[in-house]
Amino acid sequence: MPRLPTSLLREAYTIDRLLPALLGPCRDLRAARNELRWLREHVNTIAAARPARGGTLAKDALLRDLVRQRASGKPLQYILGTEYFGELEIMCRPGVLIPRQDTAASISHLVCSIRNAQSLPSELRVLDLCTGTGCIPLLFHHEFYSARDDIDLRILGVDVSDTSLNLAAHNLKRMRKDKSWAEKGAIGFMKADVLLNPFADQKGGRLPLKRAFETNKQLQSWDILISNPPYISPSAYWKTTTRSVRGFEPKLALVPPPHSTTADTERGDTFYQPLLHIARDVEAKIVLLEIADLEQALRVARMARELRIFDGIEIWRDQPEQTPDTTPSSTQGGFSILGQGNARSVLCWRGAVASWLGKPTPGISLDDDAHRLLKSHGNFTSSFHTNGLSI
Amino acid sequence: MLATPWVCRNCLLRAAKPAVRRGVRLQSTVATSESIPPALLARARTIAAEHQQLTEKLANGFDTRAAKKAGEYSRIVLALREWHKASESVAELTSLMHDPTTDPELRELASDDLGAIRTQLLNASQSLVTSLVPVHPFAHLPCLVEIRPGAGGSEAAIFAGDLLRMYQAFCNRNGFRSTLLKYENVNGTQEGGIPLSEAILEIDHESAYGFFRGEAGVHRVQRVPVTETKGRTHTSAASVHVLPSLQANSVAESDYDDPDSDYYVDPKEVRLEVMRASGAGGQHVNKTESAVRLTHMPTNTVVSMQDSRSQPKNKEKAWALLRSRIAQLRREKREEEMVAMRRSVVGVAKMGRGDKVRTYNYNQQRVTDHRSGATVHDLDDVMEGGQTLNKIMESVRSWLMEKDVEALIAEEGEAKR
Ligand SMILES: C[S@@+](CC[C@H](N)C(=O)[O-])C[C@H]1O[C@@H](n2cnc3c(N)ncnc32)[C@H](O)[C@@H]1O
After folding, report:
1. For the Prokaryotic-type class I peptide chain release factors domain, which residue ranges apply (chain B) (predicted)?
2. Are B221 and B92 part of one and the same domain?
3. In sequence order, what DSSP letters do the residues of A132-183 get, joined into one string?
4. CB-side exposure of A279: number of CA atoms within 13 Å?
5. Cα angle vertex A373, ends A217, A362, to 5°?
């Protein structure tokens, strides 16, 4: 990382003695000022909650301590304990990935595109694999019910980590205390390993998803599958992630586990084949997968096309709702790319649900759809690692 | 026998307390006289007749538009009725006094009462004239007061902070709820005591716009700055803008969607920019970036907001502020057009956002408003948002009313020709 110019540090110092330290993680003055303000507000809230202990002196000491932590690279969200995900304030704890705004933008865009559809079923089922803080189920619920209330939403979040599942449950409990939270539908969380072969035996207390569905008496078919899985390759982990991410966020959430012979790029893609196969098995009609960049997006889109069960596949950028700066909207490898920013997710859909998304409905009969689902099962087990799974 | 009717009415008139009209003390010659300019009286009568028709129409069935109009007119009708009553009384008393057959005792009584009745008439005339002045379309709304330092470097920024505290204190004393919508001192933090770079105070009180709109303009300060070592007096300034607050439900929801309304902003004409962490994004980066900037392209109005860690919250605040600014801009443009039209008729003072409206002179402990001409001497009380500030604000409202009346008369005169 380039060194910060001395003049910038000096300017920061004349504004506030605590600012130069924040320039390290923030890199620019505007961001550093914002963070200092939020840290101050946080300290004031804490002080107001436990009054009459040392007054300003203790407040100053606390602020200095928090600034020092932040300067060491600790994410602001772990220090403050929360991050905003769309309109929701989600609790964050070390050991669980901090929700990203880019993810929220994709989720909001998906919900906004379908929530006003006429043809939604009376019960809509959403599966979120690799749920982390539970932010995706919570935001889906919130955005959906802020527009309509005549549909029963069933959302299930799945993760392999107990720390994540505990935090997700806690976040749900906290949301339900909020007055504006709609007490409708149902949100649940479940432990499962999405990489495990469904036919494999239980491994070190981990259940494959299908087995977990059975054990927990969960539904086996889902309308929408969403996932923001670990997608960073080992080399990108060292080259592309920031120090704060590497030093403080769980690697389990970022980099897929190693398995025998895979090269760097394939390792980054580890989750997508299994996720797409799960999508087929649960007969998902809409699939939204977050990805790292355009290259990965194109690889994932091709994988999805090869399954031959989808009627449409497109790539969304960080702000999918924004019209791109460059008109007309681009296409690559036969996939249209929507929005502004870096490529962020791949959307696949099949059958009549195209109308939920406001896309032209493909002329495919129910029988044909069932047939292609069945046919696609040919290369079934190949994508799951039957051995050597270690994290 | 002969005098009973008026004696009775007189008692009634006396019992009715003179109407308290705060801030509406008219100094111009036209309005201090008991007589109303004929053009205005004619207008009031036309409106009363129209009101009569509306009431009849409403008796036969409800009609929202008619009801609304009748409601607006009722103020004028009432004022006209009061004026008629008072002028009849004056006429009766006068004729009684001039009637040689009047009993001397009665005449004395009548002349005693004439003074009081004349005051009634004067008040009634003023009420009638002011009732004819169209109410400012934003007057009923809560408002935003924006304060920014003008020329004069850090002294201007310190004074901007002083003005903010003055308005905050004023709101506290008068029970107006106020919140800081945006606050940035030159450090980019919110700590007090540091010169201000921008503040937006929301005054969440019905009719706050009407109450504070006279504060808009350039406020000038003359004093020896704390930073000045040689003891020289400096002149600096801060600008104050007053906008209608369109947060939440201050305006009917439909007005936001009605392209003809002042509050309408076409989303297609607004460019949204969100600040994002540079680089790869996604899981690679975990920096919080929530700043939002909106640009209304036709007017090149830019609003940016980064106070909250939540981007949707910043976006929402930015939209509300953008709507307020655009509504105010449109209004100002229309007011300017009206002023331009009238200037040929009468020298109506212009009050744009660039005009110097008030001077705070610390050496002389005095505050002078350049529009109303009012000068007060208790500067400390003004800066603490006390009664003296109220007094000077009131003088401005009177001045505004006077200008409106002049304009109204000029307009009626034009229409006659
Ligand atoms: C990138 S995080 C996404 C968290 C959350 N959905 C979000 O968007 O903030 C990936 C999550 O996948 C979980 N995970 C990792 N390996 C998994 C596996 N084999 N099966 C299920 N979940 C797994 C991690 O615990 C982590 O919470």
Report:
1. 276-292
2. no
3. TTTHHHHHHHHHHHTT--SSEEEEEEEES-HHHHHHHHHHHHHHHHSTTS--
4. 27
5. 115
B196, β-bridge pairs: B185
Bridge partners of residue B242, in order along the sequence: B145
Q: Do B306 and A34 touch (CB under 8 A)?
A: yes
Do B236 and B221 form a contact (C-beta atoms < 8 A)? Answer: yes
Contacts of B63 (CB under 8 A, 6+ apart): B57
Predicted confidence band at B342 (pLDDT cuts at 50, 70, 90)?
Answer: low
Q: What atom in ligand 1 is closest to the CA of residue A103?
A: 8
Pull the structure tokens for residue A247. 């030093």
CA distance A349 to A357: 9
Instruction: Please report where in the chains the tokens 């936001």 appear, as a residue.
Output: B256
Whether the pLDDT of residue B344 is over 50: the answer is no
Instruction: Scan residues 208-267 of A and list those with Cβ closer than 8 Å to B.
Output: 228, 230-232, 236, 240-242, 244-245, 249, 253-254
Question: Whole-model pTM?
Answer: 0.78
The domain boundary residue, chosen from B99, B132, B165:
B132
Range(s) of the domain holding residue B300: 143-408
Chain B partners of A100 at a C-beta cutoff of 8 Å? 281-283, 285-286
Please indicate whether residue B339 or residue A23 has the higher confidence score (pLDDT).
Answer: A23
Tell me what percent of chain A is helix, strand and coil, each rounded to the nearest 5: 45, 15, 40
Inter-chain contact B288–A249, Cβ cutoff 8 Å? Answer: no
Number of domains forming the structure of chain B: 2
Which chain A residue lies closest to B286 (C-alpha atoms)?
A245
Q: What's the rounded Cα separation, in Å, for the pair B152 and B237? A: 7
Backbone angles phi, psi at A37, to 5 degrees: -65, -45
The strand ranges marked E within A193-273 are: 224-227
pLDDT of B145: 95
Instruction: Say yes or no to pLDDT of B30 above 60.
Output: no
Name all domains of chain A by residue range, CATH numbers in brackets: 6-72 (no CATH), 101-357 (3.40.50.150), 367-391 (no CATH)
**Identity of residue B181:** L
Q: How high is the mean pLDDT of chain B?
A: 81
Pocket of ligand 1 (CB under 6 A): A 97, 99, 103, 130-133, 135-136, 159-161, 164, 193-195, 228-230, 252-253; B 283
Residue A22 Cα distances to A25, A27, A38, B183, B403, angstroms? 6, 8, 12, 21, 54
3-state DSSP call for residue B370?
Answer: coil
At B415 the three-state DSSP class reads helix
Domain end: B72, B101, B132, which one? Answer: B132
The pLDDT of residue A280 is 95
In a domain, B415, yes or no: no
In chain B, residues with a C-beta closer than 8 Å to the C-beta of A242 are: 279, 284-287
User: Any idea how long chain A is?
Assistant: 391
Residue B112 has a pLDDT of 82
